[in-house]
Amino acid sequence: MAKLLTDSEFQRFSELQQKQSSFTITAEEADELRDIVAHAQKRRDDRAAAMQSIETFIRQFDITPDELFSAEQIGEAARTYGLIPAARKERVLPPSLTFNGKPYQWTTRPLPDEIRVPLYDAFKGGESVKSFISTLKDANRCAATIARLERETGATYAQAWLDELSVTRAQVDEAALKLAA
Length: 181
Prior knowledge:
Layout: H1 7-21, H2 27-60, H3 65-68, H4 71-80, E1 96-99, E2 102-105, H5 113-124, H6 139-153, H7 159-164, H8 169-180
Antiparallel strand pairs: 1-2
Helix pairs in contact: 1-2, 6-8
Protein name: H-NS histone family protein
């Protein structure tokens, strides 16, 4: 009912309905209530007729959904009504490092000095940091580790060492862009 009435009409409808339920409504107010309900029913019927006309035109002219709506609108409607599962946000794990047998997650907090100092020294010295990386099979995490090291040390990792990790310069650059965001 609220969709079919203006705010002021709906407010008056609610007041009159409350009076009716408490049996304090006058004959004039009862007529006003009937007029509001009749007005809402007419709007409902007009909307139904308009929708029927639109559906007829869509069938008549063979209009496809992509002519009426963008791909994003169609996808959002499909997710809203459960026709396709809602997209899940991709979970990105932070770089994982190992030093002296002890694992470290490199989150937004800085690494402890016990691993940071030897890791940064090796990286700035142009040495391989493969022994520090504990997720060698995950190219994205390796690239994120190298990108973060390059950003924090100002040094660039040698191509030979990237090849050793099976990581391309493009992957490192992409990870660096994600870090900046």
